[in-house]
């Protein structure tokens, strides 16, 4: 519009009515995203009308370019090609200012329309690619979060329910012949239940982080290295002799690494409680090196002639979850039979900056 008025001023006159028509016609472009083809048809009709009744049509081409670009961008290739062909036909063969169009005029009009169409197609592809990438990233984030929640739920529920099942079985077996042992087993079972509820509450607090309803509430810290004594003690009280050994120079670990170490030991002990068998002994060994921490949980299997424990077999999600946890920190994990029993060994790299400290 500014270009139109300026060109008319240079010629010494300003056709107010014609300029008003140009302004009104340009308002069509406001609806170009809702109805691109209709807007393109209206813009072409205005362009032709202006050329029939005034010389303003030659300055209305920018609106045609914008309308054509939007039509090609928001429609399929066939519709876009039809819009380009229609623009070339209208502007070249029906244009009253050019009663005898030359081949060069046709080539220029066609090249201009194809350039606009090409720009729109390129922009459309980029837009669709960016949208697909955003959807992929969103789906991946949701999938990762689901796996993380599944890992936490599995580790919490599987470990504590396995321990509680064994403790309940021991209490039932001893309730007549050794009431004190049965009472101790029930007390431990109660404590294991409270711990499971506490860890579940912590997980829910983390999932609800930022909720206005939780303002002012204190979130319990995540389990870590300091909680290994507790789960090793639970394993002993469930009837599985377990030892915890620490080698190297113990130090604080990044929260994520500390939680991973805890979950590896927890899951390995759960598997030992289920499958190691009577008479088995479990050794939990934590080794602090300069650039890594190593975790090893090994059992020597059941004693000869002793049956395995009557606990339902797991689904295999625990080992999968351990591998996923270790992979997130760039570590390695090996799990399999060893020396008549079963061994889980993990290596987790640590930050190289020795000055970095963690709570």
From TrEMBL:
Region (Disordered) residue spans: 211-232, 298-317
GO cellular component: membrane
SMART domains, per database record: HATPase_c
Keyword terms: ATP-binding, Kinase, Membrane, Nucleotide-binding, Phosphoprotein, Transferase, Transmembrane, Transmembrane helix, Two-component regulatory system
Ranges of residues in domain Histidine kinase: 263-352
Tagged with keyword Transmembrane: yes
Alphabetized PROSITE patterns for the sequence: HIS_KIN (PS50109)
Pfam families assigned: HATPase_c, HisKA_3
A GO MF term: phosphorelay sensor kinase activity
Enzyme class: transferase
Spans traversing the lipid bilayer: 12-30, 37-53, 73-94, 106-126
Catalytic activity field: ATP + protein L-histidine = ADP + protein N-phospho-L-histidine
Entry's EC annotation: 2.7.13.3
Highest taxon listed in the record's lineage: Bacteria
InterPro entries referenced in this protein's UniProt entry, alphabetically: HATPase_C_sf, HATPase_dom, His_kinase_dom, Sensor_HK_TwoCompSys, Sig_transdc_His_kin_sub3_dim/P
Protein name: histidine kinase
Organism: Streptomyces ficellus
